[in-house]
Design goal:
With 472 residues, this protein is an alpha/beta fold. Helix content is 48%, strand content 12%.
Length: 472
């Protein structure tokens, strides 16, 4: 059995235990967390390819082709050459940015050569992927500052001592106009305009610069320069990565394989991807309590995508846990606490994860808000059709205006607390848009999603003020 197989067997035994037990949870975090440095070189080419494929959205041409390339390079006495390009566009990084480097770490631990491309040249063009407007170019000072912040914050997920760095300005800056024109002659404009964001911007009359059209070609030259076997990127980078295959073939190189990672949904459960602009992110520089609390606020349906994105759990382990939930032997909140512990442990260590777990339980898992004495209340039958902001303002007097209620929601301070079985609590963070919806609709959906359609009690919490929602 492989080293990973041994670990999976031990973790499976722990997953069958009582996960309300701090002892069992701590043992599980230690077992799965140790995998972040586990040597995976004893896996076969097929096993390696399947492990990578299980965490990708697209693996092109196929998982089998990746296995073949691994075996081909092994026969040549070397590993794959894998790269990930980074355009250091911001100094602060969130969990969404960690997804591709976690997979890159697995390639690293499988014994392959990994290069991080620092897009100091392409950052000055601006990656247009998924954007609806032009992005201002960065200065050299911006790039260096952002790169330093990125590296420091992503370090818990990746071994920067075992990676090569390459700045693409080294080969892109000397590129002459004849060389560029010769290359562009092999790239149909139609292939560049396949991008949905480009088409949308053109149809809306928005700006689209020639430099943005050149970006995918410039990025493709990174792969040519390094003769890469594999390139990783977000799923929004797919067309850029495929351009790399096209340009490599034009240079008579064996085209790279493409591995794309999911754009993980934000913590608010609105369907939008995690981003700082939407406030639905978990910053890698956040405190253990902040990270734990934000993960605990997610809808239950995001637990599996988050386990896949940020932990070293295998699919059989995830299936084992979800099967226990379906069988009624594991409460979703207990699994969510394990997930939150996994993320905090990766960023701050197991001791910090267990302390954050204890703090959360002490703060949010009391037997009932009823223990606090007489609370204000709102009747669903009387005020259920009113928007939550209006209820907070006109009925409960918790906020001076609807806009103030929306501000609380924007700061993740508006929540429904759903109680079941007399003690289990689920804190549901309500995003700003929910503040405008009818109270009855929001409560009904929360009870359905987090308490199986029946709750003992529901409380509406705005900042530190709490009211009971009656007449469910």
């Amino acid at each position: 059995m492989t080293r990973l197989g041994d670990s999976v067997q031990r973790a499976s035994e722990l997953l069958a235990q009582d996960l309300t037990s701090d002892t069992h949870v701590e043992q599980l975090l230690a077992e799965t967390g140790a995998r972040r440095s586990l040597d995976l070189s004893d896996l076969t080419g097929k096993e390696q390819a399947e492990l990578i494929g299980a965490r990708s959205v697209e693996l092109l041409p196929s998982v089998d082709k990746l296995a073949e390339r691994i075996e081909q390079r092994a026969a040549q006495g070397r590993g794959l050459h894998v790269k990930l390009g980074i355009d250091p566009t911001a100094a602060d990084v969130h969990l969404g940015h960690a997804v591709p480097v976690i997979v890159l770490s697995r390639f690293q631990r499988m014994g392959h050569d990994v290069t991080l491309i620092i897009g100091d040249f392409t950052a000055k063009i601006g990656d247009p992927s998924g954007r609806t407007a032009e992005r201002p170019p960065l200065t050299d000072e911006d790039i260096e500052r952002n790169l330093s912040g990125y590296q420091e914050q992503v370090r818990p997920f990746f071994d920067f001592e075992k990676v090569r760095f390459a700045h693409n300005s080294r080969w892109l800056a000397p590129c002459t106009l004849p060389q560029l024109l010769g290359l562009l002659a092999q790239v149909p404009v139609s292939s560049l305009l396949q991008r949905e964001d480009f088409r949308n911007r053109l149809s809306e009359g928005s700006g689209l610069t020639m430099s943005e059209l050149l970006y995918p070609v410039a990025q493709a030259l990174d792969s040519v320069e390094l003769a890469c076997d594999v390139e990783l990127g977000g799923v929004d980078q797919l067309l850029n990565l495929q351009m790399g295959r096209r340009i490599m073939e034009a240079h008579r190189q064996q085209p790279q394989l493409v591995v794309t990672m999911p754009l993980v949904e934000g913590t608010d459960g609105s369907g939008a991807k995690m981003s700082k602009s939407k406030g639905n992110y978990v910053g890698l520089g956040s405190t253990p309590d902040e990270v734990f609390g934000k993960i605990m606020s997610i809808p239950d349906r995001l637990m599996v995508p988050y386990l896949r994105a940020w932990t070293e759990w295998t699919d059989p382990e995830i299936e084992q846990a979800t099967a226990r939930i379906e069988a009624g032997t594991l409460h979703p909140m207990d699994l969510k606490k394990v997930l939150a512990g996994e993320v905090v442990s990766a960023l701050h260590g197991i001791a910090a994860a267990m302390a954050a777990r204890a703090h959360f339980v002490a703060q949010f898992s009391k037997k009932s808000f009823a223990d606090a004495g007489e609370l204000p209340s709102v009747e669903v039958a009387e005020h259920g059709e009113e928007g939550i902001a209006a209820v907070l303002t006109k009925v409960l007097g918790f906020t001076p205006s609807a806009s103030a209620a929306r501000r609380i929601a924007k700061q993740n301070g508006l929540r429904l607390i759903v109680e079941k079985d007399g003690q289990e609590q689920q804190a549901v963070v309500l995003p700003e848009a929910e503040a405008l919806r009818p109270l009855a609709d929001v409560v009904r959906e929360a009870v359905s999603a987090h308490a199986g359609g029946a709750a003992d009690a529901v409380y509406l919490k705005a900042g530190r003020k709490v009211a009971e929602v009656r007449g469910l």
